[in-house]
Amino acid sequence: MRAIWKGSVSFGLVNVPVKLYSATESHDVSFRQVHAKDGGRIKYQRVCSIDGEEVAYADIAKGYETEDGEMVILTEDDMADLPVTSSREIAVEKFVPRDQIDPMLLEKSYYLEPENTGAKPYALLRQALLDADRMAVVTVALRQRTTIAVLRVKDDVIVLQTMMWPDEIRTPDFSIDSGEVKDAEVKMANMLVETLAGDFDASEFEDDYAEAVQELVKAKIEGGEIKRTPTSTKSSGEVVDLLAALQKSVQDAKDSRGESDAEKPAKKKAAKKSPAKKAAKKKAS
Q1: pLDDT in tens, 259-281
Q2: How many helices and strands (H and E) does the chain possess?
Q3: In what helix (H) or strand (E) does residue 222 lie, and over which residues does it extend?
Q4: For 75-100, what is each residue's pLDDT tens digit?
Q5: How far are the Cα atoms of 41, 72, 275, 277, 285 from residue 282, in angstroms, in the given order?
Q6: Residue whose C-alpha is closest to residue 34's, from 23, 43, 24, 25
Q7: Quick check: 86 and 124 in contact, CB under 8 A?
Q8: Distance, CA of 153 to CA of 17 (rounded, Å)
Q9: What's the gap between Cα 147 and its chain centre?
Q10: Helix (H/G/I), strand (E/B), else coil: 205
Q11: CB-based contact 11:92 (threshold 8 Å)
């Protein structure tokens, strides 16, 4: 991981120099929009909706649209006058009970690593958070904008989680008419909860969609279903190697949990064959 921000946590007279690391990364499967006929990538042009002319990037300005549809143009000078901050301080405002922080307010997570000189006060703050069973509400400037966040402890590391502003949480504008709920129905629902009760273990869940996409793509490559375009920069062999590496990573993760394909318990319901497996079987026949 690479530090994306350096500063310090201040609470009272204690100052903890820290580095900030992004704690999460997205593994979403991404696709490119292409021409189905030849695989060429789709390009988008910046076209003005009024005169229909393509607009150079240098001529694009920021516009704020009012509720009645009027457009207010903001210049670079206008933007320069807006309040920004470059503070390198994570200021603790107060320590609050954990249950007072609505999870809907939480956004992105970051790990805080202490600098060499801040190891002891870092440990002090970490222990104080654990003993009090509270979160620290802080203010911090990220990307030149001040935001609110919380500090909490996860696996001996202090985590900073940015928060949305209260007015960014929408209020549901619908009502729920459930009718009469009978005691017998409530009792049965409670029995179901008890039957499915357990502890959360993230390793029990897998991204079946991403794995199925990889199998599907590999089957098409092995079957020669590849569009070679002038913009292609990788050979099919390189793609296969990448897929193999991804699949090995998935298998290594399973092995590290002591879960091999042969040892996997049979599911109650037979899983449907993925499109990739059907395609591979069809080509083999």
Answers
A1: 655 555 444 444 444 444 444 44
A2: 6, 9
A3: helix 208-222
A4: 888 877 776 666 788 999 999 999 99
A5: 29, 59, 10, 8, 5
A6: 43
A7: no
A8: 17
A9: 19
A10: coil
A11: yes
pLDDT tier at 126, thresholds 50, 70, 90 = very high
Contact by Cβ (8 Å): 163, 148: yes
Structure tokens at 165: 């502003």
Residue 62 is given by DSSP the state E
Cα 44 off chain centre by:
26
Q: Which amino acid is at 82?
A: L
Give this prediction's pTM: 0.61
Residue (of 29, 25, 10) closest to 208 by Cα position? 29
Alpha carbon dihedral 264, 266, 272, 275, in 10-degree steps, equals: 20
- 226 contacts 236 by C-beta, under 8 angstroms: yes
Tokens at 46, concatenated:
């910046």
Amino acid identity of residue 49, one-letter, is: S
Contact 98, 133 (CB under 8 A): yes
**What's the helix, strand, coil split of the chain in %, to 5?**
35, 25, 40
Fill in the amino acid letter for 208: D
